[in-house]
């Protein structure tokens, strides 16, 4: 099965549909989740859902949905859900003029750590502005920031999982970068002794359009910082192929200093 | 030949200054003035580099230096005695109005990456108050004059002082 971008629903826009955000606190009894789904299937079409357990053993179901009937109301759905023994609490929020916003969650958490979600276009735009304002110094700054961010990131993760895990299996880092949306990252040893080659398809840094930038300095710094944190030595990182220069993927060569 | 070009540029600059009245030509004047003085300054920095090279020093104008980040930066002038390690870097910011802090920041980021002993920013006419504070904070030597040409001799003096201090 081919991989895909993880779709999450902080918002959804469809002016042709009546939209509802349904949040249910589920009991820890087996089958709670499926019983709520069973109830909802007659009234709404679920377009995106997530569930997660809480520390007290209960769980949260959160679903973005389209009403099957134009006469559907949020209160009607809420009463229906609360008729089930599986539901402890429920809130239903209706969209307005085709726009449905998640008003229940107040941020993102991955493995209990808070995250910021931002559009790739916004990130690329910010990098572009830094480069436009500061010229070649802007790219130097982006390199430094990429390096500092990844070094801090790997060092923090290593405290949790152990640095040996990264050294033995570098693919953990590539997989994390891919999941987080930096691009589709793959790494291999070589071509020279002690060298690594990182290939980033769908690179987030050069995904913007109409920029005068010529290299992915942030990503280059990102690999330099993570390589330093994992291997405890400096690596010279060169970008040998880049989407800014028309390449299909960006390629970085890491050479130990 | 170069003397004639410089004379032509100076005459052009004077003509543009004369034309700077409230006419559409003043707009053209403002647009062309910076590029004119930049060309003139560049030629003078080349002369300055040639003079220093005759003394056995390794000066470049313009100079391209690869910083710690691996990014290549351009400076109007640089003194690079050891391979790749800049001792002095000089840049110019020539404007018809006060130069703002973004220009200082732009220079500073390059300086930070290249890490020279001395960083000199030649400014016409002068830095704004905030820009001046920022330059001081960053340890940048700022040279200001209404006449761009004067900045060359001022920069040369500071470069020689730096070399003198380094040799002691």
Summarize, please.
Helix content of chain A is 35%, strand content 29%. Chain A is of the alpha+beta class and 257 residues long.
Architecture overview:
The complex is a heterodimer of chains A (257) and B (168). By secondary structure, chain A is of the alpha+beta class. Chain A has 2 domains: 11-115, Alpha-Beta Plaits (2-Layer Sandwich); 120-256, Trafficking protein particle complex subunit 3 (Muramoyl-pentapeptide Carboxypeptidase, domain 2), CATH 3.30.1380. Helices cover 35% and strands 29% of the residues of chain A. Chain A is built from 7 helices and 12 strands. In chain A, the strands form 4 sheets. Chain A has a 4-stranded antiparallel sheet with strand order 3-4-2-5. In chain A, strands 9-10-12-11 form a 4-stranded antiparallel sheet. In chain A, strand 3 (44-53) and strand 4 form a beta hairpin. In chain A, helix 4 packs parallel to helix 7 (217-231). The radius of gyration of chain A is 23 Å and the shape is elongated. In chain A, 32% of the residues are buried. The model of chain A has no long low-confidence stretch (mean pLDDT 94). Chain B is built from 5 helices and 7 strands. In chain B, helix 1 runs antiparallel to helix 2 (24-54), helix 2 runs parallel beside helix 5 and helix 3 packs parallel to helix 4. In chain B, the strands form 2 sheets. A 5-stranded mixed sheet of chain B has the order 1-4-5-6-7, sandwiched between helices. Chain B has a two-stranded antiparallel ribbon with strand order 2-3. Chain B has 168 residues and is of the alpha/beta class. Mean pLDDT of chain B is 82; it is low at 17-33. Chain B has a single domain, classed as 3-Layer(aba) Sandwich (Trna Endonuclease, Chain: A, domain 1), CATH 3.40.1350.10. Chain B has helices spanning 2-19, 24-54, 101-114, 129-137, 148-167, and strands at residues 59-60, 63-66, 72-75, 77-79, 88-94, 118-124, 141-144. Classes of the chains: A alpha+beta (257), B alpha/beta (168). Chain A binds chain B through residues 133-141, 143-144, 217, 220-221, 236-238, and chain B through 67-74, 102, 105-110, 112-113.
